[in-house]
Amino acid sequence: MNLRANFSLCLLLGILLLVYSCKQAKKEEVGETKQPNIIFIMSDDHAYQAISAYGHGLNNTPNIDRIAKEGAIFNKGFVNNSICAPSRAAMLTGKHSFVNGKVDNIRPFNWDQDNFAKALQKNGYETALVGKIHLDGLPQGFNYSNVLPGQGQYYSPDFIENGVKKTYPGYITHVTTDIALDWLDTKRNKEKPFMLMYHQKAPHRTWMPEEKYLTLMDSITFDPPANFFDDYKDRPAAAAQEMSIYKDMDLVYDLKMLDKEGELKTKYRGMFQRKYDRMTEEQKAAWDAYYDPIITDFKSKNLKGKDLAIWKYNRYMHDYLRTIQSVDDGVGQVLDYLKENGLEENTIVVYTSDQGFYLGEHGWFDKRFMYEESFRTPILMKYPKEIKPGTVIEELVQNIDFAPTFLDYANVEIDESIQGESLRKLVSGETSEWRNAIYYTFYEYPAEHKVKRHYGVRTDRYKLIHFYHDIDKWELYDLEKDPTEMHNLYEDASYASVKENMHVQLEKMRAKYGDSDALNQENLDRFLKAKNIKH
User: Fold this and answer.
1) Phi and psi at residue 263, in whole multiples of 5°?
2) Widest distance between CA atoms in the chain
3) How confident is residue 535, by pLDDT bands cut at 50, 70 and 90?
4) Does 378 sit behind a cis peptide bond, omega within 30 degrees of 0 on the bond before it?
5) Is the pLDDT of residue 175 over 70?
6) Is the pLDDT of residue 389 over 50?
7) How far is residue 354 CA from its own chain's centroid?
8) pLDDT score at 29
9) What does the DSSP assignment read for 463-478?
10) Residues 22-65: pLDDT tens digits?
11) DSSP string, 267-314
């Protein structure tokens, strides 16, 4: 081959190599060959009613709303078991409580079982868990963990970093955000895709706001929901609970009426005193300046009956919503970090809560019931590559769906034992086929708040619930005609065919997921033994 021909061949090969390199670089630039990063944000007891994207008008959450605006909002997101630890176990494993073993807050969680973080880690992901997980033991599946012991504390919180306990100065929501951002910026291996579980304590009870938000919404008086003074007619399980704002909400522990004179002697005063004592002198001064005049005014009024109930409702709402404002600030910081560091396009961001919460509906605070406000949870999700901005999802989705969704996006095999379904095709609009019913269980009784054991099924329109153990009561609701679940239709003859169909649907759900009366009895026996309660 002569010199000219040799040169031409080399030139051609160089051009081809350059074209190939450019194509590969372009692919990497748009992320076609990259597994997506994942940031899974979860708060605790964050009612969907208290996210402004859901349109209830209670507060303003501009940063959480950004996720919906830039991606998808799920209008029918639900949990499998509305209590902290079981919900988180279902989220990690993609399995119902009676399958993963974490049926209540008492039984230990088996970290040796599979979870989606382990699967991602095995497939090249750098993984981290920061904040609340409420599952005892050293978390498995994470290169880095820095978690709260139990429920955590709002002020001067303790964390357990890779098994080592330490106390951080400051306010818990900011501390959690700072730890998460520090891991993203300085601790992770930036050559790998990452999965960060960034989980806030707030707005969990006792709703202690940070100093800068103590006066937020002071000018607003909240009107209680229409069913605030519910009489629970034909709903004996609802009548038996102890989560009434009027009757059960502690003036000191919940509503911060820690008077210096010690005249307000409530059941949980000492517990709140210990929370207050964690503050610095500067923090206490800010709190005293705000709450002392409210305490003085409250004691002078001697409120009773409905006036007291509505006063307590407003104190609750103000503090609850203030803690959410700090959570929203943290979400904004994380979203800004992604954008500023060129990570936004290739990162899936999900915001959710471990369950819903009552904001005065039926006169309640707390969760546990299969009624809508605690059964339903907020879910917002963005991923610029696949989810169109402003997407609205009306299908029934559940917290067992997170695990298979993350594995699907990461191109990791979804084990057949996972009971949830990937949301990927749903949010991308590639499928019209989806489940037509979801299943729920609750086991933690007899216990705090006295919510009876129950299980049930929900479809788009109807809900069937069975309360059992020391009660045997069925409830049926037509959610289209009665969205606030005030009228139990189980004995209504005009709904006989609906009742029959819902019983069939319930048995299908129990068979599909592997639940049974025998399992219920086994879980009850273990629970009573753990609490040293005789049958």
Assistant:
1) -80, -25
2) 106
3) low
4) no
5) yes
6) yes
7) 2
8) 41
9) EEEEEESS--EEEEEE
10) 444 444 443 344 899 999 999 999 999 999 999 999 999 999 99
11) TTHHHHHHHHTTS-HHHHHHHHHHHHHHHHHHHHH---HHHHHHHHHH
The 10 Å Cβ neighbour count of residue 521 is: 12
**Do strands 158-161 and 144-147 pair parallel, antiparallel, or not at all (unpaired)?**
antiparallel
Per DSSP, the three-state class of 108 is: coil
Name the amino acid, one letter, at 441.
Answer: T
Cβ contact 401:419 at 8 Å: no
In this prediction, residue 379 carries a pLDDT of 98
| Other CB atoms within 10 A of residue 456 CB | 23
The Cα 109–Cα 112 span in angstroms is 9
Separation between Cα atoms, residue 379 and residue 61, nearest integer Å: 14
| Burial (CB count <10 Å: 0-12, 13-18, 19+), residue 385 | middle
Categorize the per-residue pLDDT at 430 as very low, low, confident or very high, splitting at 50, 70 and 90. confident
CA angle, 501 then 505 then 84, to 5°: 135
Residue-by-residue DSSP string for 211-261: GGGTTTTTT--PPPPTTTT---TT-HHHHH---BHHHHS-TTTTT----TT
CA distance 99 to 115: 13
How far, in Å, are 35, 46, 319, 476 from residue 82 at the CA level?
32, 12, 22, 19
pLDDT in tens, 68-127: 999 999 999 999 999 999 999 999 999 999 999 999 999 999 999 999 999 999 999 999
Mean pLDDT of 346-360: 98
Looking at residue 411, the DSSP 8-state letter turns out to be T
Mean pLDDT estimate for the chain: 94
Chain centroid to Cα 248, Å, comes to 24
Backbone angles phi, psi at 152, to 5 degrees: 85, 170
